[in-house]
Amino acid sequence: MRLLALDTSSSVATVAVMEDEKLIVETIINYKKTHSEKLMPLIEEVLGHCDLKPKDIDLFAASLGPGSFTGLRIGITTIKAMAQALDKPVVGVSALEGLAYNLAFAKGLICPIIDAQRETVYTALYKWEKTGLEEVMEQRVMPVEELINHLHNIGETIIFIGDAVDKFRDQLQANLLEKSYFPSNNFIIPRASSIAELARKKALRKEIAQASEVIPIYMRKSQAENQYEERMKGKEGQ
After folding, report:
1. Phi and psi at residue 234, in whole multiples of 5°?
2. Do 33 and 144 lie in a common domain?
3. N- to C-terminal Cα distance for the chain?
4. How far apart are CA 85 and CA 3, in angstroms?
5. Left if phi > 0, otherwise alpha if psi is -120 to 50, otherwise beta: which for 108?
6. How do residues 141-163 score in pLDDT, each as one tens digit?
7. How far apart are CA 44 and CA 26, in angstroms?
8. In terms of domains, do 14 and 117 share one?
């Protein structure tokens, strides 16, 4: 089974190709250009490295979010269009779970944090067990202070990853002290290889979908939606 996976849930664009359990190629771009500019050239480059064409892919996979609304729309729309054109199945993977999978068999709790703006984060808690990666706190959006208060009651090391680490590192360290741990940057950013491996396992469990069934995980309204609702409330109050 050949699998093409991507993650555009943050400013990072990453694409990978797997064949069965073997990772063939993975590319990551974490620099300036928008996803609309870099995603398709990146996919073409990755397939070219493997001497493959889109029709050679058996399964398409994408990070469903949560994360950047624009980034998710671009990535998911691209994957859905490719899968639909080729009549191939799709697997969606949580961006938070994908981040946690970067830290294979890490000890302690893994806490991915993705910036949700306004001092809030998309987050969850994961732990590696003998059976694999287990979710021990469901995915949610919450203020950073509320997350810190929740983690104060946990007696394990907590490993933070995700694009909100740089923004909240000092606050997390100041409040959680020796309980907080921050791995090197290559583990903090999204990796398409993690999305690919999780998608492969889901496919083996028959957890696949048609392109039309795949929807993003937003968890909250976009800034544009919030501004629109505020304008409507203002008009109603006049």
Report:
1. -60, -40
2. no
3. 60
4. 16
5. left
6. 999 999 999 999 899 999 999 99
7. 12
8. no
d(Cα 189, Cα 73) in Å, to the nearest integer?
19
Same domain, 22 and 125: no
Structure tokens at 171: 């606050």
CB within 8 A of 18, min separation 6: which ones?
2, 3, 5, 24, 193, 196, 197, 200
Q: How far is CA 73 from CA 81, 137, 205, in A?
A: 12, 26, 26
Q: Indicate the pairing of strand 109-115 with strand 120-129.
A: antiparallel
**Measured distance CA(187)–CA(224) in Å, rounded:** 31
161 φ, ψ (degrees, to nearest 5): -140, 165
User: Looking at the chain, how many residues does it have?
Assistant: 238
**55-77 residues labelled b (16+ CB within 10 A) or e (exposed):** eebebbbbbbbbbbbebbbbbbb
**Distance between CA atoms of residues 18 and 30, nearest Å:** 21
Q: What global pTM score does this model have?
A: 0.91
**Tens-digit pLDDT profile for residues 14-26:** 999 999 999 999 9
Whether residue 68 sits in one domain with residue 32: yes
Residue 51: exposure state from Cβ atoms within 10 A (0-12, 13-18, ≥19): exposed
Exposed e or buried b per residue across 94-128, where buried means at least 16 C-beta atoms within 10 angstroms of its C-beta: bbbbbbbbbbeebeebbbbbbbbeeebbbbbbbbb
